[in-house]
Structure formats: C-alpha cells, structure tokens
Amino acid sequence: MSFGGFLDSSAGGRLVGNYIGFPYSGIIAKDDPSAINIPSGATAHQPPIVSPSSLTKSMFNSPGLSLALQTGIEGHGDLTQLGDGNFDAPPTGGGMMNRRSRDALDQEHDSRSGSDNLDGTASGDDLDAADKPPRKKRYHRHTPQQIQELEALFKECPHPDEKQRLELSKRLCLETRQVKFWFQNRRTQMKTQIERHENSILRQENDKLRGENMSLREAMRNPICTNCGGPAIIGEISLEEQHLRIENVRLKDELDRVCAIAGKFLGRPITSMGGLMPPQLPNSSLELGVGGNGFDGLGPFPDFGAIGGVAGSLPVIPPARSAAGIPGFDCSMEKSMLLELALAAMDELVKLAQIDEPLWVRTLEGGREVLNHEEYLRTFTSCIGVKPSGFVSEASRETGMVIINSLALVETLMDASRWAEMFPCLIARTSTIDVIYSGMGGTRNGALHLMHAELQVLSPLVPVREVNFLRFCKQHAEGVWAVVDVSIDAIRETPSGPTTFVSCRRLPSGCVVQDMPSGYSKVTWVEHAEYDESQIHQLYRPLISSSLGFGARRWVATLQRQCQCLAILMSSSVPSHDQTAITLSGRRSMLKLAQRMTANFCTGVCASTVHKWNKLGPDVAGDEGVQVMTRKSLDDPGEPSGIVLSAATSVWLPVPPHRLFDFLRDEQLRSEWDILSNGSPMQEMSHIAKGPDHGNCVSLLRARAMSSNQSSMLILQETSTDASGSLVVYAPVDIPAMHLVMNGGDSAYVALLPSGFAIVPDGGPVPGAVNGGPSQRGGGSLLTVAFQILVNSLPTAKLTVESVDTVKNLISCTIQKIKAALQCDS
DNA sequence: GTTCTAATCCCTA
DNA sequence: TAGGGATTAGAAC
C-alpha cells in the first residue's frame, strides 16, 4: 500500500495527516462514493455515514486514498449541517455535552456574533458578561470550507505573510489571529508527522536488524566453513563471535537512537548510552538524516541509516582510511565499531585500575605489581583478539600524586602535540589521525580520537614502537576522568597501508585521574602491551620485560617530573641559584630552549620518523654497535643548516644509575669525559631548578678558553631524573644568542644541536656479554650516548667516511673515558 | 485513554 | 514584536 498520509495504528487506523511532498488535492464529498471505503463494521447496503471530523480530514487526503470511517458515529454528518452543527449537535457518545448545562449552551449560542466560527473567548460579549456564568467553551472547529481554504494556501505557502493572512481572514470570516494560529499549528503538526514517520522507519530498521541478528545467532550454533562446507574451526567461530558482538552493539545503539527520538515525544530524553549520549537530541529530527536523505556523519552520536542495503551479510570490517568523509554505511559502521572497542577498553582500564588482588600481585622484591595473566584472561574478553605468536606481554600499574588537575591532564592527553611535549623521552612522534567524536558540551567527555604514535626508550637497540590506537576520554564523576588507549591494528588497516608490520599492540592502557586537594591529582596509570621481543636487543630485554622501559612507572614518573617543572614555570618566581641576574622572562626562555634541546636529543637517538633520518648501513657505519644517521637541516632557525650526523650507542655499565647520573651532570668532573671542556673543570654560570630534586635543572656552563685570545664557550645543559631513568642533555650555544635568551628574548632562533646521555637501570640480570660486559644480578645501568654534530654546513655536500669515523671515535672515546673514571673498564 | 486541534503562554531573535 | 515551542483543554475517537 502506498499512500501519502500516515496510518496511525494507535488511533485505530485513522488517517492522521499528510506526508510532505504529497500534494493535498481534491475534496472527498459525501457524494463521491469512490473515495469511501465501507468499514469492516458496516455492511455494503448501509449508506456510508460521514462524520464532520472524518469528512474534514478526508478532504485533505489524496484522491483514491482509503478513508476509514468511524463506526461509532451517528448520522449527523450532512454537509449542510456542518457549518453551524458544531455546537448544537445532540450529545453523542457521552461527550462534553453531558457535562454542560443547556443554559450555558444557549448563552454561548446567543453570545456568538457574526461568524459562528469565531472563538468565543475573543468575543467582546464574553468579556463584559460578568454576571453570566464563565464561558467554559473556548473551543470549536473551523468549518471544512475554511480548512479547505487554509490548507490550499498552506500547500502553496506554509508561511504566509501578514497581508495574505489578512486577506484570508476576511474571506473566511476568521480573525487574523485565528488564521495565524492555524498556520502555526499546521506547521507544528507537519513537523510532528515527519518526525513520527522517521521514527517508524527507524523502528522498522531496528526490527530488521534484530531479525538479522537472530538468524546470525542461529547460524552460529551450526557454523559451517564457507570454503569446504565442513564444520568451522574454532578460530573462525571466534571471529564470527566478534562480528556478532560488534553487530549487537550497533543494534543497541540503534535502539538507543529510537529511544531517544521516542523520548523526545515523551518530553524527556531517554538515553541508555550513559555518558556518551548528549542530554538532548537535536531540535529537529531532520538533522538525523533519516530516510535516505543523507548521512553527514557529523552528529553527536553514530549514524546508522540505510543499513538495510546489506541485509543478510555479515558486517565486513571496512578498510577505511578515515572514519570521516566516508558517507553512509561504511562510516557509521566503522564509527560504531570503534566506539564499541573504546567502551570495552574503557571498562577494562577502569577495572585494571581499581581491582587489586587477584588481578594484580605484588612481587616480593621491589613491591612492583605484576598482572596475574590467568586472572586477567578470566576477567576480560580480549578487545583486540588473540596475541600474535611470538609476542610477549608486558603489563604494569603505577599510582602517583601529580601536581596537575584532572581537567588539565585530560586536555594534555587529548591534544597530540601537548601529549608529546609532556612525555618527550617516551614519545618520538604522534599525531591525531581522526577525531571521531570531539566530546560533549564543549568538554572532552566522550571524545574519541584515532591516533598514531611512535613510542621510544632512548636507545638505538630498542626499535620505536609504532602504534595506531584509539584514545577515548570519559568523565566518570565530578573530578574523575579516565583516558584509555587501545590498538586498532587488529580491526582496521593502518594509515600507511595494510602491509605495515605491527611489532607492538597496546591492550587497554591509560590512566584514571582523580582530583585531590591543593591542585594535585591522583593518577593511576596502566600500561599493557604485547610486543615482538625478538626485535629488541638482549641488553634491553630485562628492562623492557620488567616494564621499566615502556611501563606505567615511566609514564607516571615522567608526568610527575614534567608537572613539577610546569608548576615552577607557571609560578611567578622561578628559583635560581646563579651568579648572573636573569630576569623571570629570561629564565622562562631558557627553560623553553632547554625543552627544545632535550626534545631534539630524544628524536635523534632512535630512528623515529619525526626527522627524515637516513640510517647508514653497517657497511658505512661499521658494526661496533653504533647507529649512525644523517639528515639535511634546511631553513630551521633552531639549528645550524647543513648535514647533521647523529651517532648513538648503548652500553651496559656495572654502576648504579644514580651514580652514573651524578657523575655525568657534575660540571667539575666534566673534563674527565668531555673534549669540549678543554681538560679543565667547567663553571656553572646559571642554574634553574625544575623541581625539588637537584638533578632536575637547567644550567649554563662555561668552558675555559683554549687560548687567551679565544672567547670561552657556553654550554646549555638540562638534566632530568626520576624513578624510571635520567637524562643529561647539552649543547654548545652561541654567547650573544644566549644573552638574548637570558634577557627574555625568543629562544626559537638559537641554533643548537644536542648531545647527551640517557641512563636507565638494567632491569635485572642482563644476559651475555654483548656490548657491555659480564652478566650481573642487576643493579647496573644501561647508558645511551648520542651525539648530533654538524658535519658539513653545505646541505648539498656528501657525507665522508672520515666524518663517520670521527663521530664513532668520539663516541667510543667518551665511553672509554667514562668507564675509566668510574673504574669499570675491566 | 489517546489523538487531534484551536488557542494560550512564554521565550527568543 | 513576530514566530515558535510547550502546553492546555475541548472534541473526537
């Protein structure tokens, strides 16, 4: 059945309106039997009886439509009676007439002036009739003729201007305000009808999906391999199960949407998505894009339109490059899948952060928490599928107080560049690929980002971990937020293409942050990953497997240290113990310059892609375990232009990390390893503390000049230390440029190339004598030495073997000197 | 009890 | 001040 109106089942099959786009045309009069159906309750020989109201409605429906007659109406429907029959018709079926006195009715009738159809309340007769009983009746209906005219104009113009309304009111003997109200109500009615229509389409869609789901479930009971026709193996079933789970969530979301629309009609929002659902739907359901009118994918929650087109097929995971910009099914499908993954990950993160034993077990030595994998597998269903063969797991949890509030931390985490700035030694590079949901009501609650990151420990012996992941942010309570990351390589291709080899998967990881008094917050960090251990040098395997490399402790310790520094940077007084009077803005400029220096140092240690480093093969670089890379520096005011060479290596030293750190940062002992010191102790010109630990500071060192006619050289040095490791980064700087910075000038134009050291604990017994020495029962250090040197100021110049050899000699010489000074060169 | 409809109130641009 | 959303209340079903 095709029709222009809507059959409202709850109204007993009455035709209640007209769908937009179907013209109102024709009038069904009582002498037009072709337009009238005999209702089931009437017999064929009985003449059709048309009630005033049903006739009124029938006049605005398309010709040929079925008109459902109301069987309970008595015959007072003669058209000739309709004009003035509204009030005086005898009571039918116990309506209002029973409640009103005859007198009152008479008064009403008498008081009517001019038109029978004018509203009584607007009549002057009523206003001054104080002695009369108050008018109970303000209601009447316009005559069919009037409505016909009104509808005709509405069809032409749903929004008539005052002139048109005035003209119509004169013609129909109605007040202009009555005409105005009529149009207003008609527009509202039209809107409601459209919304209802869309609602019913959604319901149908939902039912259809439910049916599909049921049949899929049925198919699941007897899985058959599509290739051979035999019983499906377990792996396939689990994949199907995964698809079904995803499909179910999609259905649930669909239902939520219908509920939300239904809630709109009920006058209150009905949501079952928890924090994800906005409190209210958009004002107009037209924005939902239902009914094949387009799916913009920009709404506050997933679109699920037009999915009937793939009925009967399993949801195929689309190889979408981006969730945005893909219209219709693919986009909404992918978004809902990503959302499901994010929600599951969030659930897992919160549980991992909250539950102690038996999920987490404390080790006897060091009190570190270790994930009980059996319990983990019992508690959670894997979000991202089974662990690839050859991968090992790494899980850690750490809680700490951090001087930052939850909102600021959430903002930092949800902004890729700020996130990278906060963890320069951990993040080589990161970017936001796609903002799937930006959050609700201007907050980050419900924000879902697709991100790419290269994570690093500062050593050429540990490859960067390239991960594509979802980052989902949720507010759990006032002042309590959680941000979860989860790899998505398992369910979609990486932006760089399907062939990218994944060497690391992040299982639900992230942090739960809770505001505490005095600007602090309690941060519980969980890091859970699976990685290919074979790519990691043996020297670093204990460190990585004990979660000291990429683990929660490192994230929390770095966060604490960085936030301390930020707190000092933001405070009005930057403590310094220097011999020169540097202004406040000068200190801030210096800290900013040091921050850039350290960040550049970090990006030069590992072969991350942030700079286009060319890694030299062993034929050029040699096989002494030194990684040599080159790049061209052009048009960057922050560093000298030319060919930059980076050389880095890592060694094991039987010295505790703190001792190594104290030795390397001491300007008095610098001459023992630094050729720039010219064999003499250096002098600390300026010292800016970045936190309570003396090891966290920025200082300006001066080396003694080689000869009397040579000016002395300045070295900018930044040292950082926390529970997870330490850094000593330095760079020779131009004296006039530093003067500028110390006076608060812009540090962006100070050219520097950083060198330095990264120190981490060895993480336990280090296997076999590779590059470092005999294996020991832990307690030693892993030291990374890295130099970035300008080998030629002409970017077009070729790199010479001599340059490479010089740098390699410099590195091995430095390491030998350090070993000798610490008496561990045996 | 539900739906339709004319009218009213109140808010906003 | 016009227009629209929310609401009211009589009438119809």
From TrEMBL:
<keyword id="KW-0175">Coiled coil</keyword>
<dbReference type="Pfam" id="PF25797">
    <property type="entry name" value="PDF2_C"/>
</dbReference>
<dbReference type="InterPro" id="IPR009057">
    <property type="entry name" value="Homeodomain-like_sf"/>
</dbReference>
<dbReference type="GO" id="GO:0003677">
    <property type="term" value="F:DNA binding"/>
</dbReference>
<feature type="coiled-coil region">
    <location>
        <begin position="187"/>
        <end position="219"/>
    </location>
</feature>
<feature type="compositionally biased region" description="Basic and acidic residues">
    <location>
        <begin position="100"/>
        <end position="113"/>
    </location>
</feature>
<feature type="domain" description="START">
    <location>
        <begin position="331"/>
        <end position="568"/>
    </location>
</feature>
<dbReference type="GO" id="GO:0030154">
    <property type="term" value="P:cell differentiation"/>
</dbReference>
<dbReference type="InterPro" id="IPR042160">
    <property type="entry name" value="HD-Zip_IV"/>
</dbReference>
<dbReference type="InterPro" id="IPR002913">
    <property type="entry name" value="START_lipid-bd_dom"/>
</dbReference>
<keyword id="KW-0238">DNA-binding</keyword>
<dbReference type="InterPro" id="IPR057993">
    <property type="entry name" value="HD-Zip_IV_C"/>
</dbReference>
<dbReference type="Pfam" id="PF01852">
    <property type="entry name" value="START"/>
</dbReference>
<dbReference type="GO" id="GO:0000981">
    <property type="term" value="F:DNA-binding transcription factor activity, RNA polymerase II-specific"/>
</dbReference>
<dbReference type="GO" id="GO:0008289">
    <property type="term" value="F:lipid binding"/>
</dbReference>
<comment type="similarity">
    <text>Belongs to the HD-ZIP homeobox family. Class IV subfamily.</text>
</comment>
<keyword id="KW-0539">Nucleus</keyword>
<dbReference type="InterPro" id="IPR017970">
    <property type="entry name" value="Homeobox_CS"/>
</dbReference>
<feature type="region of interest" description="Disordered">
    <location>
        <begin position="76"/>
        <end position="143"/>
    </location>
</feature>
<dbReference type="Pfam" id="PF00046">
    <property type="entry name" value="Homeodomain"/>
</dbReference>
<keyword id="KW-0804">Transcription</keyword>
<keyword id="KW-0805">Transcription regulation</keyword>
<dbReference type="GO" id="GO:0005634">
    <property type="term" value="C:nucleus"/>
</dbReference>
<feature type="compositionally biased region" description="Basic residues">
    <location>
        <begin position="134"/>
        <end position="143"/>
    </location>
</feature>
<protein>
    <submittedName>
        <fullName>Uncharacterized protein</fullName>
    </submittedName>
</protein>
<feature type="domain" description="Homeobox">
    <location>
        <begin position="133"/>
        <end position="193"/>
    </location>
</feature>
<keyword id="KW-0371">Homeobox</keyword>
<feature type="DNA-binding region" description="Homeobox">
    <location>
        <begin position="135"/>
        <end position="194"/>
    </location>
</feature>
<dbReference type="InterPro" id="IPR001356">
    <property type="entry name" value="HD"/>
</dbReference>
